[in-house]
Amino acid sequence: MTPLADLLAARIAASGPITLADYMADCLLHPQHGYYATRDPFGAAGDFTTAPEISQIFGELLGLSLAQAWLDQGAPAFTLAELGPGRGTLIADVLRATRGIPGFHAAARVHLVEASATLRAVQRRTLGDHAVTWADSVQDLPDHTPLFLLANEFFDALPIRQFTRVGQGWAETVVGLRDGRLRLGRSAPATLATLAHRLADTRDGDVVETCPAAAAIIAAIGTRIAQNGGAAIIVDYGDWQSLGDTFQALQDHRFADPLAAPGEADLTAHVDFAALAAAAAPARVSRMMTQGALLDRLGINARSARLAQSLTGARLAAHQQATRRLTDPAEMGSLFKALALYCDIPPAGFDP
Ligand code: SAH
Fold first, then answer.
1. Residue 326 domain-assigned (yes or no)
2. Ligand 1 within 6 A of 211 CB?
3. Which of 36, 63, 141, 255 could form a disulfide with 116 if both were Cys (CB 3.0 to 4.6 A apart)?
4. Cα dihedral 160, 161, 165, 167 sign
C-alpha cells in the first residue's frame, strides 16, 4: 500500500465510499502524495510522453496559429496562457517560434496555470529568464485583456465522475473498501438532471463520464474570450461524446490498475469535447478535428522537411518517426482531437 492508499482507506472507513472525482483529485494533486505534486512524470524515464515532448513542431505550429489569430485581431496587448504546462516545453516552443513576429513578445504577458510546485520549478528552468506569472486556476488569469490560450493533455487529468445507466437512473462508480483494500463499487441508482440528455443516446448498462471541473474552466475561458477577444486551442485524447469506461492508469508507459498504487500512477479519462463545446458560450466554438488533420493543415510536412535538411542517420530517422507519431492515425493522429474557442474567426487550421 502507498501512503496515500492508507490515508484514503482511513477516510473511506470513517465516512464511506468516495466518488472517482475525489479519488482522482487526491491521487493526482494531494500536496504531499499526489502524482503531479511529487514528480516530473514525462519522457522515456517517466510514465508517459506527450506531443510537445515528441517534437518541437507541435508547439511551433500551435503557437503560429495563435499568433495569426492575434494579428487578425489587431495585435493587442494580451495574456498568453497555458493550462498544465508539464515541463514547459510547449510554451518554450511557442515563444521560440513567435520570436520573429514583430511586436508579439512585447505585447504578451505569459501566465501558466499549474497546480504542481514540482512542475512549476521544472517550467522555470525550461523558460530560462523569460518573465512568467503562475496561477493556481483559470479564474486567476487576468480578465481585462485578450486571452490567447493553449491546453495540451490538461483536461484528461481533471477528475471525472462515472455513471452506469440503470433503467431511467444512473449508478455512480465509487471507491470503497473490501477486506481493508480499495475496491470499485457502485452507488444505488438515482435519476440525474445533469444526465437527462444522455437518456436519448444510451441503453441500460452503458457507462458515461462527466467532468464538472472542465465545464467550469471552459466557461471561464469562454467568458474572457467573448468579452476581451482572444482564442484558445485545446488538444487532448477523447471524442465528441463520452461513452464507455475510459478511466485509466498509466505507469512506466503501460496500463495499470487505477486502484493499485494511488499517487504513483497517472490517472486520466478521455475528454468529452461535446461537453467542452457546450460550456464555451458566449465564445464561439470551432468544429472538433483530429490532431493529425490539424497539424497537416498547419503545415507539419513542410516544417518537418525543413528540419530534416540539417539531419542525417539516426537523428533523421528519429525526427521522421516523431513527425509520424504526431499525425499517423495508428498513433496519436486520430485518438487526439483539437477544438478552438474564439470570438470572430477561428484560429488558422480550424473550421467554424
Ligand atoms: N501539457 C503538458 C503536460 C500535460 S500533464 C504536456 O503536454 O506535456 C498535465 C499537466 O496539468 C501537469 O502539468 C499537471 O501538473 C497539470 N495539472 C493537472 N491538474 C491540474 C489542475 N487541476 N490545475 C492546474 N494544473 C493541473
1. yes
2. no
3. 36
4. negative
